[in-house]
Amino acid sequence: MISRYPCLGPRNLPGLRGLRTPGSFVRPILTQRYQPRWTSVPRAWESTTTGEGRSGHIEAAPNESILWVDNLFPLKLSGLLRAPWKSPDLDVAELMKRFRNSTLGALDPMNMVKRAIPTTAPVNITEILPRLKDGGAFVKFTYPADVPAKEIEATISKYLQEKPVRPFFSPFRGVQAGLVNGVPWLEDLHRFPKDRLRVEFVPKNPGEEAVELSQETLYSLFRRYGKIAEIISQPWDSKVFPKYAYVDFASVRDAIMARNCLHGFVVPEDLGGGKLGTRLRMSYEQRVQPHRFWEWISNHPRIVIPVLVALLTGLTVIIFDPIRSFFVKAHVTRRFRLSNSKLYRWLRRRTVYILNLKREKADQAGLSAVWTHRRDLIDQIQKWLLETAETFIVVQGPRGSGKKELVLDQALKDRSNVLVIDCKPIVEARGESATIKEMAASVGYRPIFSYANSMSSMVDLAVQSTTGVKAGFSETLESQLQKILQTAAAALTDIGISDRNKTDSDASLPVDAYLEAHPEKRPVVVIDNFLHKGDTNAIVYDKMAEWAAALVQSNIAHVIFLTNDSSYSKYLSKALPDRVFRQTALGDLSPDVAKRFILSHITNGEEQPEAKEVSSEKQPAWARVLPDLGELDECIGTLGGRLTDLEFLARRLKAGQSPKQAVEEITEQSASEILKFFLLPGKTTNDGEHKWSMEQAWYLVKALASNESLRYNEVLLHNTFASSTSVPDGEAALEGLSNAELITLKSRNGRPALVAPGKPVYAAAFRLLARDPVLAAKMDLAVLTELTKAEAKNIDKAETELALLGGLPKQPAQTAGRTMYLLGKIDAAQRKSRRMRGRWVLKKVLCTEA
């Protein structure tokens, strides 16, 4: 008896559960015409799911064979095998009624099995086992002893060629049949058909030896079932057992036919199977698709990566650059701002404007006196904007002098296309990504992928470490800033020529010539806070200066620099070395203008009523708190003409304070700021942010408390700067204190000449700090300690050199002068240290004063 593995039961085949009869088939005597008989006995289907004794094998009597009928079901239905179907006992009765019906539907698989076997074939069907995931069925049949099974297979194959049976889901490939020569494994695992078969060569019986079949033998065995695409033998040096070979078919159906007909087939000796025979054990294998294109890409990174970078760059230019240029134009022209809409302006006039009218009127009234005083500067800037000269406009002045308000609110108030770039947030941004983000936001450049720079840097590093070639994905900060500014320049060019009409007489001029002829149509770029932190992040200032030079040289836009640093020419001269800058300086207001500013701010621009004409009850609120003019003149002299300080004073006076009391509070507040930022321990650093020492700051505070200004070189020669152990570079210390606005460096003939307080109010704050005995004693003690350390260091250095000279075996005459010099240096340093022994007096003050 030949045992065979069962197929899937009806629990996996809804609608096909009647293809096999429930019970053992009755084998009737064959008729003279060998017409196949279809009989059934109940309970046969359930028994074939696991076989006799639930072993999973199929028993076949002598003169019994199995035929594989292919292409009965679509292969896509194999997914239904995962569904948990119910027990087959529920539907057996209904299915058997349909099976016994002689009028089967044309699409019924049972009908296709009947049509595939001719009536002249000498067979008697005894059992049918459908295989849903293989798309066919095993048909067991008996045949006469004098008729070979091969002849029956040839008869059925010839009949299907002459009268093909085509299912509805496969109109081009009909039903095919093949004789099962081996022992098929009817498993119900989730292993679905593929076009590649793994053919393993195993011994016929355990313990025997199998023979590896050649490709010619495999071709002769498998070719009858379909077109073979490739036969791949196992590598000769492979240690994998059992030996195997891959047979690739052109069609999945051909692979199914070959596996179901030859699985378990024993190759005899005459076919190359060896003396004991070799059994074929087959399974479906997922064919690895050849990815030649991807393999070429992965094997040639030095070519592919630069090409990929170029493609990505081109894609970015094509897609994102027009979008970014559009956003830059919208940012400059303020086209989509809500405040420019008519509805917003109407609502503002009806609601918010009424509520803020009084406050805005006071501010405008206070500034009107300033603008009247500086009307000549405003007119001068407006005239420069109408000229065609290719140069910068530089407005320089200390913080709080009103540079930005002068340029934006007065000189450019009638200009519609103004781009303001504030360098302060760009320079103060931490990290390259933040710097790029701030620069893009200042010009309206979006979308910006600031995080992509760090990611591309990591990818570039990984590629370089693996291939040895820099991929070029990452871009430097300089290149990123250059890209943003170039896009902004292109957008400004489009804005400048947006009003050009074809009917104009000069419409045929090139872009630069047209903008040169019409300076009033060029946009204005205002670069605020230029050199905000001196040399910190100098690359930003360099790129801004180069970009601004390109704008003015190409007549794209007018450029105005607003800066607090008087050394701006160092950066701008690099960009425009052959141009003279148009510059103007804003200083502090004169006492008369400062007085008018304060009075205008207090009175909201109204005329002061005479005390005799109007009673005190009917006077406005500002008239009742109007300060004494004599006291106000004295306070303005103390406070100075800095615009922000004057505005602060005006608000205090308007709140009801007297001028003297307000100035005292402002002075105390300034003294507290100086004490906090310059004179407290911990500010003695040299990390690039603070380049001065606490002792140096106190020397300047104490010296400027009694002098209006100090000589620059005199300060550098003082022991606090010349002999400092913590900050040996005195010029860097003065520059750092100037950038921090404690002092102001005044130039003469291009060189620093004088050192003055950073703000006029700082002179009064310096005097206030110097009059504090405890603070003075503490800081003088720190200065003496620092100088003592410096003298001790000098003595130690001289003693070290004397010890070196004294160690010579003989004292040459030439060393006598050097020895006397070192001894004199030690004596001078010792006398200085002796004069500094008055520290006990300072300590006494610290112990007795509160």
Principal-axis shape = elongated
The CATH topology of the largest domain comes to Rossmann fold
What characterizes the major β-sheet?
A: 5 strands, antiparallel
Strand composition percent: 5-15%
Count, helices:
32
Number of strands: 17
Percent of residues in helices: 40-55%
CATH class of the largest domain: Alpha Beta
Radius of gyration: 50 Å
| Spatial separation of the terminal alpha carbons | 118 Å
Residue runs with pLDDT of under 50 for 5 or more positions? 1-54, 81-100, 357-362, 607-622, 683-688
Mean pLDDT: 77
Please explain how this structure is put together.
By secondary structure, the protein is of the alpha+beta class. It folds into 5 domains: 10-179, no CATH class; 196-289, RRM (RNA recognition motif) domain (Alpha-Beta Plaits); 355-373 and 588-657, no CATH class; 375-449 and 482-585, 3-Layer(aba) Sandwich (Rossmann fold), CATH 3.40.50; 669-837. Helix content is 47%, strand content 11%. It is built from 32 helices and 17 strands. A 5-stranded antiparallel beta sheet has the order 6-7-5-9-8, covered by helices on one side. A 5-stranded parallel beta sheet has the order 11-12-13-10-14, sandwiched between helices. A 4-stranded antiparallel beta sheet has the order 2-3-1-4, sandwiched between helices. The longest helix is centred in the C-terminal third of the chain and has 34 residues, at 773-806. It is elongated and about 140 Å long. 33% of the residues are buried.
In short:
The protein has 32 helices and 17 strands.
Secondary structure elements and pairings:
Layout: H1 44-48, E1 64-70, H2 92-100, H3 109-116, E2 124-131, E3 136-142, H4 149-162, E4 176-179, E5 196-203, H5 215-222, E6 228-233, E7 244-249, H6 252-262, E8 266-267, E9 278-285, H7 292-299, H8 301-333, H9 342-350, H10 352-373, H11 375-384, E10 393-396, H12 403-411, E11 418-422, H13 423-428, H14 432-443, H15 451-467, H16 477-496, H17 511-517, E12 524-530, H18 538-553, E13 558-563, H19 569-575, E14 582-585, H20 591-603, H21 621-624, H22 629-639, H23 643-654, H24 659-679, H25 694-704, E15 710-711, H26 712-717, H27 719-722, H28 730-739, E16 743-748, E17 751-757, H29 760-770, H30 773-806, H31 815-835, H32 839-848
Parallel strand pairs: 10-13, 10-14, 11-12, 12-13
Antiparallel strand pairs: 1-3, 1-4, 2-3, 5-7, 5-9, 6-7, 8-9, 15-17, 16-17
